[in-house]
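Sequence design from tokenized structure. All designs in this work follow the same two-part layout: the structure record, then the generated sequence. An example of the structure record is given first.
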């Protein structure tokens, strides 16, 4: 999988803090107990994603050793992550909280792509599978598959059904 295996979160130096922050911020319990901290940390998260992670994602795309497909996957991931966090922030500012929550879940899933790509690489290593197409495919699959599962679960379970199920 080459040198670019480090993932775009790590190359910016704030990968672990952003994942930890993301885990806290998507927690309903944390949001309810500490709404002011949720807002503050959400701003920190947004700034880190837009000013550190997105540029490092483009850097990784530019230097992808395994070709144009991998480069396009990493570049698209950077664009999608920046767009989701920006749209999530905008929704929060406009007090559209349900919409904000959906955008930020998408953002969190995209941030977790670094973990997913490492899992794919680890499984390939354990299975002693080293196909030339594996890394380019995994740069796309690491974020498109979780996002597709998220979106399809929303379509299969509309909001009015989710509310009824909780009661």
């Amino acid at each position: 999988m080459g040198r670019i295996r480090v993932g775009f979160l790590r190359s910016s130096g704030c990968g672990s803090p952003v994942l930890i922050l993301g885990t806290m911020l998507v927690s309903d319990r944390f949001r309810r107990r500490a709404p002011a901290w949720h807002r503050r940390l959400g701003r920190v998260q947004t700034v880190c994603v837009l000013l550190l992670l997105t540029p490092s994602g483009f850097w990784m795309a530019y230097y992808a050793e395994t070709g144009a497909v991998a480069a396009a996957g990493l570049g698209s991931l950077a664009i999608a992550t920046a767009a989701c966090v920006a749209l999530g922030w905008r929704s929060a500012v406009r007090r559209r909280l349900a919409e904000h929550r959906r955008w930020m879940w998408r953002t969190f899933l995209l941030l977790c792509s670094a973990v997913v790509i490492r899992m794919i690489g680890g499984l390939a290593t354990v299975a002693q599978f080293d196909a030339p197409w594996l890394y380019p495919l995994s740069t796309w699959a690491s974020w498109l598959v979780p996002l597709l599962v998220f979106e399809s679960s929303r379509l299969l379970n509309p909001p009015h059904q989710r509310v009824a199920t909780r009661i």
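The chain has one domain: 3-166. We note this feature because it recurs in several other targets discussed in the main text.
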